[in-house]
Amino acid sequence: MTLTPSPSPISPAGLSVPDSLAAAEADLHAARWTEARKRLEDLTTGPLRISASAEAAALGLLAAACHRLGDTAAATSAVDRALALDHREMRAVLIKADLLWALGARREANLYYGAVVDIGAERAARPASGLAPDLAEGVTRARTIRQRLAANMLGELQTELDRAGYSGGTSDPRFTHALDLLTGKRRLYTPQPRAFFYPDLPNWQFYPRSMLPWADAVEAATDAIAGELTALLADDAGFAPYLNSHPDLPSQPDYPLIDSLDWSSCFLWKDGAATPNAALCRRTMEALKDAPLCRIRARSPQVMFSQLKAGAHIKPHTGFVNTRLTCHLPLIVPPNCRFRVGNEVRSWEKGRLWAFDDTIEHEAVNQSDRTRVVLIFDIWRPELSEEERHLVATLLETLDAFSPRTQSWE
C-alpha cells in the first residue's frame, strides 16, 4: 500500500493556509483592511481546520485588520483568542498593547509593549529573520512609548521624593543606592565567590566605617607604616609579581599582569605565616594588632604592600570566599588612580582605610605617571560569631588538607 501525504487545508478562496496568510498580510500592508478581514475570518471562523500556530497568526492579523477598521470589540476578541493559543504571537501582543493604551491602561500597556520589544529583539537575533513593516514600526513605537513613560515616571517620582524631603547628598545613601538601581543609574552587583559562599550576609560593597572600630588605630599609624614601606622600596627587596604562572595550573597567557612587576606585592604574612619582611615592619604589624585578622591555617592572614605601576589595570575579578573582607590602607597615592567595587568607584586617599567584599566584582587602575602602593590585609566579616569563624576555618583547612592549594587564595 502506498501512503500519500494529506493535502494542506484549502481556504474557501481556493488557497492553502500559508498562501491565505500571505495574501491577508499583503492586504493588510496595502491598507486593504476589509479584504484582509474577510480572508482571515474565513480561515478562523469557518469549518476549515488549521494548526494552532497558523490560527494564532491568522487571529493576530485579523486583530490588526479589525483595529485598523475601528472595530475594537472584534479586535479585542481576535487578540484574546490569539494569545490563548500563543502568548508570544507578536502581532497579537502589539495590538493588545495598543488596545490597552487606548483605554488608558498605561501600566498594562507598558508590559505588553515591553514584550513587543523583547520578541522583536529575539527575532532580530535569528539568522535570515526579519520583521514585517507593521511589526518593525510597532517595535519602534513600543520603545518610544516606554521611554516616554519612564521619563514621566521619573519626573513624578522625583517630585514626590522632593516633597518627602529626599536629597541625594544628605539622605541615607542606602536609599539613594536603591533609587539608582531602580532607575538604571547603577547596575546591581552581588557576591560571586569563586570557591565558598556563606549565606545570609549583607550585600555591602564597601563596609560602613562604624563596622570597623579598630580602623582609627591603623590610620593613626599611617606615617610609621609608610616609613617601613619606604625602607623596603629603597632596598628594592621583597616585591614580586602578584600573579604568577604555574606549570600545573591553567593560566591566562594573554593577561598582561601575569609574571609582571607592574602588579607586585611584598608579603609580611602570606598564607597564614609570617615572612621575613614582617620582622622589618614591626610597627606595621603592631598597628594591626586589634584588627580581626582572618586566621586560617595555610590560608590567612594575608598582609602585604601592593604596588601598581603607572598605566597598569587590574581587570574585573572576584575573590574566593565571602567570609572575609579585604582592607586597603593607601600609602603612596598619585592622582588618577581609581578603584571600583560593584557599582561604586573611589579614589584612594593616603591614610584613609576602607574594607570591601572582594567577592563582588572589583578592579583597579593607575592612570598616573607614578606608582601606587597600598597596605592590604584580610579580616573576618564582623557579622560572623566566634563559633562561625572557628567552623569556617575548620572547613577551609580541611578542604585544603584534602586538596592542597598551589597558589595564594586571592
Automatic annotation (TrEMBL):
Coiled-coil boundaries: none
Presence of keyword Oxidoreductase: yes
What would you give as a GO molecular function for this chain, any one?
Answer: dioxygenase activity
- Please give the InterPro entries that the UniProt record associates with this protein: Asp/Arg/Pro-Hydrxlase, Asp/Asn_beta-hydroxylase, IPNS-like_sf, TPR-like_helical_dom_sf
Which Pfam families does UniProt cross-reference here?
Answer: Asp_Arg_Hydrox (PF05118)
Q: Where is the Aspartyl/asparaginy/proline hydroxylase domain?
A: 221-382
Gene Ontology cellular-component terms for this entry are: membrane
Entries under PANTHER family matching the protein = ASPARTATE BETA-HYDROXYLASE DOMAIN CONTAINING 2, ASPARTATE BETA-HYDROXYLASE DOMAIN-CONTAINING PROTEIN 2
The family line of this record is: Belongs to the aspartyl/asparaginyl beta-hydroxylase family.
Protein name per Swiss-Prot or TrEMBL: Aspartyl/asparaginyl beta-hydroxylase domain-containing protein
Source organism (scientific name): Brevundimonas goettingensis
